[in-house]
Amino acid sequence: MKPGERGAALLTVLMLVSVMAVLAASALERLRLSTRIAANAGAIDQARSYALAAEDIAVTRIGALVDADPARTPVGWAERETSLPLPGGTASVVVHDGGNCFNLNSVAVGQAGQRLMARPAGIAQFEALMQILGIGQGEAEHVAASLADWIDSDSFPLPQGAEDAAYAGGPTPYKTANTLVADSSELRAVAGVTPEIYDKLKPWVCALPVTDLSPINVNTLTPEQAPLLAMLLPDKLSADRARALLIGRPAGGYESGYAFWRTSSLAGMAPGGDVEAQTGVRTRWFALDLHVRLGDSEVDETALIEATVQPARLVRRSWGDGA
Question: SUPFAM superfamilies per the record (predicted)?
């Protein structure tokens, strides 16, 4: 072999070795990545298992809490974070009164799978809440009526409402659901709900699996949630006055919703029958926020529990972005 040929051959060999080294390094990096992904998936699965175990414990304890006094839910349990040590991590659980929110499905009356009709009382309360939160009257009326049309079974729009025709001309045409709202995020699809309006409403609304008017517990409602009380008597009770009432609440709470409405601070503000019936001292719905951290992996879970059945049961569960 001539010297020039030997040089060319050597260069070829070196190039092959370089290519093989690059391929080997790439394969090794892919193996490491696959190993990390598998380990992370395993950690997330383990974290979910811990979250489900914490959920089971919470359901049992909530059932015991309600059983202790079925007519009047004890106070002092809501909004408190409980931390649980885990092997290699921690879990935290916060329990909320799941009825202290505006039930989006209350703008209709009826049951899922049957005929649903718009409910004026629920629509009026939703309008009142939106105006208390700083949303204009016209926008509030449009959103509330459109939500009722979104849920009700008929195809005739309410004044300022929106049925299928209102959604047919958009870039992605769709129709109204004609059934109960399954998750509060569904509100974003309703006519009139802008991103700004949704951001304002998100902390205040929920989607209970019934059309009951929002079941406010006057013993667990926090002062920060005063607008939910003020929306019940918008022409008589301001949010500031409602907040003062909640701050001045007896340490052990009220004995009944009837007793609450007949305090001296509410003299002359007797509610109508529907409002008095939807306020009370018993919690039916409990909302859970669970967070589990295992090493670098995190899982968030939210759950809704119904506690007035025996035993208490899980109604809905959803996983956060971390899962």
Answer: GspK insert domain-like, Pili subunits
Beta bridge partners of 300: 291
3-state secondary structure of 312: coil
| Of 65-69, 159-163, 202-206, 216-220, the least confident | 65-69
C-alpha–C-alpha distance, residues 18 and 24, integer Å = 10
Q: What is the DSSP letter of 285?
A: E
Report how far residue 168's alpha carbon sits from residue 73's, in angstroms, rounded to the nearest whole number: 47
* Residue among 122, 113, 130 nearest 177 (CA): 113
Query: How many domains does the chain divide into?
Result: 1
| Cα(29)–Cα(277) distance, integer angstroms | 64
Q: Which residue stretches of the chain are H helix?
A: 3-68, 120-132, 137-151, 164-168, 195-201, 226-230, 239-247, 257-261, 273-278
Which CATH number goes with the domain that contains 195?
1.10.40.60
Reduced to 3 states (helix: H, G, I; strand: E, B; else coil), residue 314 is strand
Amino acid identity for residue 223 in this structure: P
CB atoms within 10 A of CB 58: 20
Classify residue 265: in a domain, yes or no: no
Q: Tell me, yes or no, whether 323 lies in a domain.
A: no
b/e code 154-174 from CB counts within 10 Å (16+ = b)? eeebbebbbbeebbeeeeeee
Preceding omega of 311 cis (within 30 degrees of 0): yes
Domain-located, residue 77: no
* Average of per-residue pLDDT values in the chain: 88
Helix 120-132 and helix 137-151, axial crossing angle in degrees, nearest 10: 140
Q: Is residue 33 classed as helix, strand or coil in its secondary structure?
A: helix
For residue range 86-101, list pLDDT tens digits in order. 888 999 999 999 999 9
Query: pTM of the full predicted structure?
Result: 0.85
